[in-house]
Amino acid sequence: xxxxxxxxxxxxxxxxxxxxxxxxxxxxxxxxxxxxxxxxxxxxxxxxxxxxxxxxxxxxxxxxxxxxxxxxxxxxxxxxxxxxxxxxxxxxxxxxxxxxxxxxxxxxxx
Length: 110
Hints:
The protein is an alpha+beta fold. The chain has helices spanning 3-15, 19-23, 45-58, and strands at 26-33, 40-43, 63-71, 75-83, 92-101, 104-109.
């Protein structure tokens, strides 16, 4: 599977709130980092699964709308609008950067 296919499948699983499918595209050592502080917010597949399982339960209507995608050899950058959170009915615009290792998504900056 190409890096682009990984991200496309992950994005689809995320919007479907299928945590097990999301995790199937992630490296066991997945790290999610803040774009603004570069601090890890999640480290490890177990922590990812716990965090996003809770997020999906809390926001069952949450979904991301892809506005733009830049594809490079080893990095993919998405511009997205996140909908389905009551604190911002118009959606939150943001960027997600994906990096890869051993055929899986290894790092996500949000």
